[in-house]
Amino acid sequence: MSRRSFLFVLGSSRPDGNTESLARAAAEQLPADVGQTWISLLQHPLPDFEDQRHDADRVRPTEGAEALLLDATLAATDIVIVSPLYWYSVSAQTKRYLDHWAGWLRTPGLGFKERLAGRTLWGVTALADDQPVVADPLVGTLHNSAAYLGMSFGGVLLGNGSKPGDVLGDTQALTRAKTFFAQEAPPARFLYDG
C-alpha cells in the first residue's frame, strides 16, 4: 500500500458542525494525490455492538453500514476520527464504531489487528471550553487504541466552538490545521507506559 489514503469518520450528531469544518480545513492541505474518503456515521449508522468474542460463528459483514466502514477502514493508510467532544470523550456514534473494531478483531480470517498495524490514527475535535485539558479522555481513547493495534498516532487537532461555524473564528486551530497532517506520527505507546 504505497499511495496514502485517508478515511475521515464523521462522528457528529449533526452535519456540517465545528469538528467537521476543522477536519475539512486540515484535509484541504493534503496533496492532491492523497485519497480521501468521508463517511458520516449519522448517514451510515452502525447497529449496536454485540460482544460475540466467544462466538465461533462470527463472520465478516457483507452489507450495510458495518461492511462499508470495515472495508473503508481496511483500505485506509490513515484513519481520522472526527468527533466532537461529548462529555469529555468521543460521541456515541464514534464509540460505537470503535466498539465494532473489537468484533472485527475477532472475525476469523480478517486479520484486522495485523492489517492496521503500522497505519496511522488521527483525531479532530471541537470543544466548547477554553481549557484543552478537558479533551484528555478523548485523546487517551484514541492514543491507547492506536497503541493496542500497533498503529502510529498523529495526535488530535483541537478547535474551540459551540454554535455551528464558531470554530472558523479559532485562528489558532485553523493555523494548526494547515500543517496537522504533515507532522510526523510516531508509533503509539500506551499512555501508562511513560
TrEMBL record:
Gene3D superfamilies under this entry? Answer: 3.40.50.360
The Flavodoxin-like fold domain is annotated at 7-162
Keywords on record: Flavoprotein, FMN
User: Which InterPro entries does the record cross-reference, listed alphabetically?
Assistant: Flavodoxin_fold (IPR003680), Flavoprotein-like_sf (IPR029039), ISF_SsuE-like (IPR051796)
- Tell me the superkingdom of the source: Bacteria
Instruction: Quote the PANTHER family the UniProt record gives.
Output: NAD(P)H-DEPENDENT FMN-CONTAINING OXIDOREDUCTASE YWQN-RELATED
State the name under which the record lists this protein: Flavodoxin
What species is given as this protein's source? Streptomyces asoensis
